[in-house]
Amino acid sequence: MAALRACVYFVEEALSSLWRSRLINALSVGTIAVSLFVLGAFLTVASNLNGVVARWTQKVQVTFYLEDGLEARIRESLVNRLEADARIESTALVTREQALERFRTLFHDLRTLPDDLGENPFPASVEVTLKAGRYTAEDVRALVSAYETAPGVEEAQYDLLWIQRLSTAVRLVRGVGAFLGGILVLAGVFTISNVIRLTVYARQDELDIMRLVGATQAYVKGPFVVEGMIQGGLGGLASVGLLWLTFRVFAQDALAASDLLGRAAVFLPAELCLAIVLGGMAVGVVGSLVSLGRLRV
Asked: Which of 135, 145, 149, 158 is nearest to 78 (CA)?
């Protein structure tokens, strides 16, 4: 019961102190919110890009573009050779007409371009999907090397290089997010530390009286720690709210990009949102402890 009464006292004193200095505490909460918002934004982008990389890696595709006017027997021979290859999961023949229709579907603003040219500029092709476990860089290059000079093949293209570059971009986004987020989190710790220090100075007479009547260090410092924790928690909640609003504002752009990415953009999972809030609370506690450690409380 004594512990429960102490916790209730800590919370009541912390809330009272937050309200008394609400303007400066709002600055502290805002600093935490901005720092965690930046970190959350980078996490959201990295999470969506990571999903794209995972899906594209599972379906690495090689496209063999065919020569114009290729005889049917040569084309069928090439397709049969590809289908018999142990590295290949499936093949799909795309005619020039199908390639043109695909272009018009994906690029609505440019759908009249082929008509302006007066001819269909797209060649026929064979799209090859590799089997799971056979889409390493060495496997893909070996497959391309084996068929790029085959009769009827004009050019071979594959997307593994883009997947590798996208994977590098994901790591870069995570690194930049962690770096900027870390700097801003330190700024949040510094801000909360200074706010708590000002609060301690403002209540110095009250704290002296508490010590004179026998209050323990834990009882004196507890409200300040809870105050920092509440500030950090409010900052975390505010950052999640800002992330959600930003995500909704840009939802149309995200949906427009979903055709390219292979799925609709998704918000952070609930576990990460909770982690952001808890991280804000931890920042608040650290800031409070740093301040209390430097003062005679």
From this structure: 149
> Which residues fall within 8 angstroms of residue 290, CB to CB, at 6 or more apart?
189, 193
Which residues of the chain are in CATH 3.30.70.3040 domains?
A: 61-158
Provide the CATH topology of domain 61-158. Answer: Alpha-Beta Plaits (3.30.70)
- The model's pTM: 0.58
Q: Which strand (E) or helix (H) includes residue 152?
A: none
Cα–Cα dist 107/262, whole Å: 16
pLDDT in tens, 123-170: 889 888 887 766 666 777 888 888 888 888 888 887 666 666 766 776
pLDDT in tens, 41-62: 877 777 777 666 666 666 667 8
Query: What distance in Å separates the CA atoms of residue 106 and residue 115, rounded to the nearest whole number?
Result: 16
Beta bridge partner(s), residue 157: 63
Q: CA nearest 186: which of 31, 30, 81, 24?
A: 31
